[in-house]
Amino acid sequence: xxxxxxxxxxxxxxxxxxxxxxxxxxxxxxxxxxxxxxxxxxxxxxxxxxxxxxxxxxxxxxxxxxxxxxxxxxxxxxxxxxxxxxxxxxxxxxxxxxxxxxxxxxxxxxxxxxxxxxxxxxxxxxxxxxxxxxxxxxxxxxxxxxxxxxxxxxxx
Amino acid sequence: xxxxxxxxxxxxxxxxxxxxxxxxxxxxxxxxxxxxxxxxxxxxxxxxxxxxxxxxxxxxxxxxxxxxxxxxxxxxxxxxxxxxxxxxxxxxxxxxxxxxxxxxxxxxxxxxxxxxxxxxxxxxxxxxxxxxxxxxxxxxxxxxxxxxxxxxxxxxxxxxxxxxxxxxxxxxxxxxxxxxxxxxxxxxxxxxxxxxxxxxxxxxxxxxxxxxxxxxxxxxxxxxxxxxxxxxxxxxxxxxxxxxxxxxxxxxxxxxxxxxxxxxxxxxxxxxxxxxxxx
Lengths: 156, 279
Known about the structure:
With about 160 residues, chain A is mainly α. Chain A has helices at about 5-135, 145-155. Chain A is rod-shaped.
């Protein structure tokens, strides 16, 4: 239990030790720890942010998909309508064409029949004249009796 | 019983309680004694702590730490947490102080776990029984009152320094004579100066004394018990109980070693924290 110079020596040793720890040990280690804490905190915050962003993006994607689907339906509807319209139009045109062609053909038939009838009439007239010529066995002036013959042909 | 073949247990213990002493001024009394064993062992242990922590502090990285760095960081963080809980202020000097105290006292206490006869046995082997008889060496620096008082007085200076720094020289001096008894009346104030001052001096001085005595008493007592148990191993009959007691006491002592280091550190922080408080 005696106090002697050892006491002073230990005090000096302690002072040196505290100085060394304060200067060379504590700043480096606590600096590293604090920096790591900051890094970890930053990392966690970044992860949180990324998660929120992902959620936003997911929501956005869902909206986009919905819109796209709607648009697609619209387009399909429109296309169908257009197709129907085209079909309808084509059908109408075709019917019209058919009617037109039919009318044309009928016209042609009618005019051809008319023409044939006329020709026939003329030929019958000529034949009648020839027949009459033969019958009377003498020459009849065709020009003098033309009006009469024409009347006859029209009557046939 | 290596160094004292002819003596009894009392002589054995007395031999082990002697320090290795160098006296620079033999004519000027025992105060000039220097206990070489305490100084050398504590210095080596302090250097060991410095070297160990410095090696990891030098290449401390904020990235993935090595296992060694992680271990050092655990200790540093543990001490820093204790400081943070008790002391609310700039920790740049307080935590290193607490860390130094904790690790150094822990290392010095841990010397208690070395066999009591290890130093004697080494001297016996190197220098022979005659040298061993005259050589004294105590391994535990904290079982020397000089070490613990040296530490606690240094802590006292630091605590007073913190008080002056926090309140200013005048504020610190004023608090010495106006607290803990307050008075509004100037007359009563003047009367209370002396009791206040007396109480404050006692309070301030009791801190290093209690710090030093607690640590010294624990370590000295622990060492003494180790020596008594070592006395059991002299005879073959008591050898086995001796080993059992020795082991049990050593295991229990691990707790005391860490606990005393922790208490010394904690009380230092508490003293600093209270010194910075205004009354």
